[in-house]
From TrEMBL, chains A, B:
<keyword id="KW-0804">Transcription</keyword>
<dbReference type="InterPro" id="IPR005650">
    <property type="entry name" value="BlaI_family"/>
</dbReference>
<dbReference type="InterPro" id="IPR036390">
    <property type="entry name" value="WH_DNA-bd_sf"/>
</dbReference>
<dbReference type="GO" id="GO:0045892">
    <property type="term" value="P:negative regulation of DNA-templated transcription"/>
</dbReference>
<dbReference type="InterPro" id="IPR036388">
    <property type="entry name" value="WH-like_DNA-bd_sf"/>
</dbReference>
<dbReference type="Pfam" id="PF03965">
    <property type="entry name" value="Penicillinase_R"/>
</dbReference>
<comment type="similarity">
    <text>Belongs to the BlaI transcriptional regulatory family.</text>
</comment>
<keyword id="KW-0805">Transcription regulation</keyword>
<keyword id="KW-0238">DNA-binding</keyword>
<dbReference type="GO" id="GO:0003677">
    <property type="term" value="F:DNA binding"/>
</dbReference>
<protein>
    <submittedName>
        <fullName>Predicted transcriptional regulator</fullName>
    </submittedName>
</protein>
Length: 126, 126
DNA sequence: ATTTGTTTACGAAGATATTCGTAGATGTTC
DNA sequence: GAACATCTACGAATATCTTCGTAAACAAAT
């Protein structure tokens, strides 16, 4: 049972739910409104559709429903990364890594994490 | 003059043109057909639209037109990476890097390239 | 209990993307 | 040059995504 690919708008909503956890439509909408302008019912409709598609779960026990992401952030990341590496980076994951490191600031701590990870790989190979 | 965002299908075509260089519709279509099935005129139409949008250039001097990507691979990569980091990786580029390294095989040579890059950054900071 | 506000449900319009049939132009082969 | 193949152009159908108006249910406030 493979997850179907979320659309652009759906991804924005998933992003919010991954970050904030289970939320009401209102909460998601407020957050969305910070960077985008759309009516409340638009957000509602999107979330209802996502629920039907199985991208979200919802608790309808009270009048105001509570929605949560039904797909994991990591799984979705993998899916999208794979596609992107394939079509846009000519199949080379390392090319993507270099691009990402080159143009998007990372903290020292994060860079250390990456170094650590590379070291671990190296060790495994011996 | 900002490049408009290519659609999913358009990206596939761009990917082929980046890899193979300037090509005819037929050539692109053959390549596309390996992984997808669509009619020839569908590919043609797509490429015509991309030309109108400015995503492709074309040489129409002979009957069979020759198309080429009008947007750079790198610029497009940046654009898509930024968006993806933002919505799917909670703004953390390093998180994306770790995911990419973790799930997509890279050769030793490529990993060395990445280590080298990290070393360079480290040096710059002192 | 009427007004006011918030919520869900529904349907449909509008926008965008994808697909392909058909026609006409051009080139190729016999 | 007639038959055949290949190409572009065009238009339109189809599919998908996005947006929002409206109505009904419900709750809270006066």
């Amino acid at each position: 049972m493979k997850q179907q690919k979320p659309t652009e708008s759906e991804l924005e909503i998933l992003g919010i739910l991954w970050e904030k956890g289970a939320s009401t439509v209102r909460e998601v909408h407020e957050k969305l409104a910070e960077t985008k302008d759309a009516g409340y019912t638009t957000t509602l409709k999107l979330m209802q559709i996502m629920y039907e598609k199985g991208l979200l779960t919802r608790d309808a026990s009270s009048k105001t429903h509570i929605y949560a992401a039904a797909v994991s952030q990591q799984e979705t990341q993998q899916q999208l990364l794979s596609k992107m590496i394939d079509t846009v980076f000519g199949g080379s994951a390392s090319q993507l890594v270099l691009q990402a490191l080159g143009h998007h600031k990372s903290s020292d701590k994060e860079l250390d994490q990456i170094r650590q990870y590379l070291n671990d790989i190296e060790k495994q190979q011996r």
